[in-house]
Amino acid sequence: MDDLARQDSDAMGAYMMTQSGPFATGGNFAGGILPVVEFLEGGGEELEGLLRKCGKGEGDGNGDADDERTFTKTHVEFVHSLLRTPSEGSGGFFSYAALGNFIPETGAGDIIGKESSSTSTSSGEKVGDVTPGNYLTIACMLLHPLSRGNTHISDSSATPPPKIDPKYLSHPLDLEILFRHIRYISKIVSWAPLSSLLKPSGRKNHGAPEDMNDLDAIEEYVKKAALSAWHPTSTCAMLPLEKGGVVSEKLVVYGTRNLRIVDASIFLLSTRGNCQTTAYAVAEKAADLIKSDDRISA
What we know:
Layout: H1 2-6, H2 9-18, E1 29-34, H3 37-41, H4 45-53, H5 66-83, E2 91-96, E3 119-120, E4 126-127, E5 137-142, E6 150-152, E7 163-165, H6 172-188, H7 215-225, H8 276-293
Antiparallel strand pairs: 1-2, 2-5, 3-4, 6-7
């Protein structure tokens, strides 16, 4: 994939002419879902200490409405239960054969560094180039964040975009969990057979801490490098109205008769994997509901 980002002429030509070369090789993406492994090894004491330290979810920027507090309490209890369950994952790990550059200030801010994004930092360091060589990026996502943002209309007209504040990583527990997953990447790359394919002191992506065991250094890196996973969900949850829900079990928006929401926003929580197949299921169910309500035969 580095050759693709560089638009390497030999690699591009090999694929276009004979369907050979690096672009003809499958399996460029591998991933998995893991709990925080050190919580399993520590008998649960570290986890329980973090849960006490990070509170029950108050102060996450969701306002003071009773329904929001009710949903927040339920949400917190659910996420805590997942963290306490060894068979449930809290981090989604994925890897791909390219050099990632996640720092937005460099003009890249993408999962693959691109030559066109080359720029210089305030210190004069040139970053963003896809330098010669072959790379492997391992990244991780927080599967069940407690941070909750908000969306609001910005004008009485339908033309202006809405105001969106995702409040990424505003809940302290999200940071603590994500830090530990990132730290675990250093263990993954140290184990055979993967370790035999990597240079012991190979180049890291821009801004990555030298010491991957230093949680303070990881914190500073995360604040600069964290990106959306581009899988937005759960802004119009299917819940009872008194718990902050937006749509009924028939996907009808509360307060309306026939306005439905049919997309990933009606999920109660983010799915533990890619949300695409679940969105398909919602669409199929919505079609059945609409046909049933309107007495349309298949």
